[in-house]
Specification:
15 strands, Kinesin KP1, Kinesin, ten-stranded mixed sheet, single chain, alpha/beta, binds adenosine-5'-diphosphate, about 350 residues
Length: about 350
């Protein structure tokens, strides 16, 4: 019967999720050289199959020039959006079984965060990023399970800029309230959504409602964190039991360090807020990985908003993005060091389990 099919599917899914070993995974993605750029020397010297990446630093000599970093997976510049999603999908599916999941895109501005999360062009499904593929899957799977579990899906979008929630927050959720972990999010109104198209339409409306013009928006989006949250509420028809799952898709602010001598005024303030929140995120994730007694969620708005979905039974995936150009080498190395800090302990455990 379809009920047993779903149970079997759940069991397989459970195993897949357990296979993800630990609650924190880190994937590294290398963006290709951009069109029109001369294909200069790449700082990515070698990508191994088992999650290793070797970086060549042309500013260093001898054996210091090459350094290997290790992650759960490394995706090279030719890996497609589709292939990226294959390794993300088990986590997305687990949301329908009541797991909370956070997926982050980290990296300097221009390294491909938005490409991974949203994609370059909403009108071509082939280039869709994780966001829309996840929505498509959630709606599709909930339809397939319709005679076993009745699902309702809601969406919410938040931007955090200078440690404040800004712009239109439109919340399209059912049985929940307009507060996130006790934080008041402005303009929260709840509307259920039934298809990926609904969400795309609403996102367009949301974009229009943003107070800033397009250029300013582009500029600012690299300095703000954008969080797309998908809530899933499911009722099992036979048992009547309730499932709640939540997926946060987070396009983080650019991680580049700002030259202290150059940054003044607004720019300096933005940079300080970004630094603070990204290091708060790193602190929370590494405290979780080390199973610390105290997890410092309170140190930033970002970690406060995501508190329910970081730690405990929740699963975290971070995509760290690097650019291959030589002039990005400083940011590339600091991005990879940040990512290793986030990943190291869980990875160590996963390796020794193999
Ligand atoms: P970020 O969000 O980190 O600032 P973007 O996602 O805007 O960076 O990417 C910067 C540029 O690089 C964009 O023009 C984007 O289309 C392109 N790009 C990023 N990643 C890829 C990729 N994997 N394949 C092809 N083009 C990419």
């Amino acid at each position: 019967s379809s009920y047993h099919k779903v149970l079997e599917e759940n069991r397989m899914l459970y195993n897949q999720v357990q296979d993800l070993k630990g609650t924190i995974r880190v994937y590294c993605r290398v963006r290709p050289f951009l069109q029109g750029q001369t294909n200069g020397q790449s700082t990515v010297d070698y990508i191994g199959e088992n999650g290793n990446i070797m970086i060549l630093n042309p500013l260093k000599q001898g054996k210091d020039a090459r350094k290997v970093f290790s992650f759960n997976k490394v995706f090279g510049p030719t890996v497609s959006q589709e292939q990226i999603y294959v390794d993300t999908q088990p986590l997305i599916r687990s949301v329908l079984d009541g797991f909370n999941v956070c997926i982050f895109a980290y990296g300097q501005t221009g390294s491909g965060k938005t490409y991974t999360m949203s994609g370059p062009d909403l009108t071509t499904e082939q280039t869709w990023g994780v966001n829309y593929r996840a929505l498509r899957d959630l709606f599709q799977i909930s339809k397939e399970r319709a005679d076993v579990v009745k699902y309702e899906v809601g969406v919410q979008m938040i931007e955090i800029y200078n440690e404040q929630f800004t712009l239109t927050t439109y919340t399209l959720d059912i049985r929940n309230n307009s507060q996130l972990n006790g934080l008041n999010v402005p303009d929260a109104s709840w509307v259920p959504v039934a298809s990926t198209q609904d969400v795309l339409d609403l996102m367009r409306i949301g974009q229009k409602n943003r107070a800033v013009g397009a250029t300013a928006l582009n500029e600012r989006s690299s300095r703000s964190h954008s969080i797309l949250t998908i809530h899933v509420y499911g009722k099992e028809l036979v048992s009547g039991s309730i499932l709640r799952g939540c997926l946060h898709l987070v396009d983080l602010a650019g991680s580049e360090r700002v030259d202290k001598s150059e940054a003044v005024g607004d720019r300096l303030k933005e940079a300080q807020h970004i630094n603070k929140s990204l290091s708060a995120l790193g602190d929370v994730i590494s405290a979780l990985a080390q199973k610390s007694a105290h997890i410092p969620y309170r140190n930033s708005k970002l970690t406060q908003v995501l508190q329910d979905s970081l730690g405990g039974q929740a699963k975290t995936l971070m995509f760290v993005h690097i650019s291959p150009e030589v002039n990005s080498i400083g940011e590339t190395v600091s991005t990879l060091k940040f990512a290793e800090r986030v990943a190291s302990i869980e990875l160590g455990a996963a390796r020794s389990n193999k």
